[in-house]
Amino acid sequence: MPRLIYETTASMNIPAPPVINPDDPRYGGTAMAFHWTVAACILAAVALALSLEIIPEGPTNDAVFAIHKSVGLVILLLTLARALWRFTHPAPALPPLPAWQRHSSQAVHLLLYVMAIIMPVSGYIAVAARGRETVFLGLMAVPRWVPLDRRLAHQAETVHVVSQYVLYGLLAAHVGAALYHHFVVHDGVLRRMWPARPKDAPAS
């Protein structure tokens, strides 16, 4: 368990919320790199998807869609690598939290992993089942591993669209909870995934 710093209010002598000691471990550099890179890719994928709704069909729309598909595959690969890393590198301990908050946090994190896999896979199936090509990063064509099937393509597209809104909700819950703990509870949860400043570094 992390050492906790308790500050008391001078006038009322009421303990302040526990704060993670800066000397205690945060997520490692690799875990942070996975987290923030995937986050940036998700934001890019969402922005590209929204732009497809307003860009008229044509070469520009096709180019944006190609980038969107590549970013989605990057998210898939990074998420799989991150999941493997997480299994071999446990997360640092959380400060004391109510059971419902701990369980909710675990559920949201798990569902974010699931959505980050389902969305690119369903997007790939929706495209491939229509016989359309996916060129990864403009360098290599992704093999078509599904049969030509318009019904399958439609089903995959439905899953992709529904998952999009599920992802929005999960991201709102995840970001909202992180900001709540940082600005309201002041328990240091957000700092576990934030690079340490020099003054926060443990003394050698």
Secondary-structure class = mainly alpha
CATH class: Mainly Alpha
- The side-by-side strand order for the widest beta sheet comes to 1-2
Annotation field: number of helices = 4
Sheet-strand content, in percent, reads: under 5%
Helix content: 55-70%
Calculate the terminal CA-CA distance, rounded to whole Å.
21 Å
Low-confidence stretches: 1-12, 14-23
Secondary-structure element order, N to C: EEHHHEEH
Shape: elongated
CATH fold description: Fumarate Reductase Cytochrome B subunit
Q: In short, what is this structure?
A:
The protein is mainly alpha-helical.
Descriptive overview:
59% of the residues lie in helices and 4% in strands. With 204 residues, the chain is mostly helical. It has one domain: Fumarate Reductase Cytochrome B subunit (Up-down Bundle). The strands form 2 sheets. A two-stranded antiparallel sheet has the order 1-2. Helix 1 packs antiparallel against helix 2, helix 2 (59-88) crosses helix 3 (99-128) and helix 3 (99-128) runs antiparallel to helix 4 (150-185). The longest helix has 36 residues, at 150-185. The radius of gyration is 21 Å and the shape is elongated. It starts with a strand and ends in a 19-residue tail after the last helix. Residues 1-12 and 14-23 have low confidence and may be disordered.
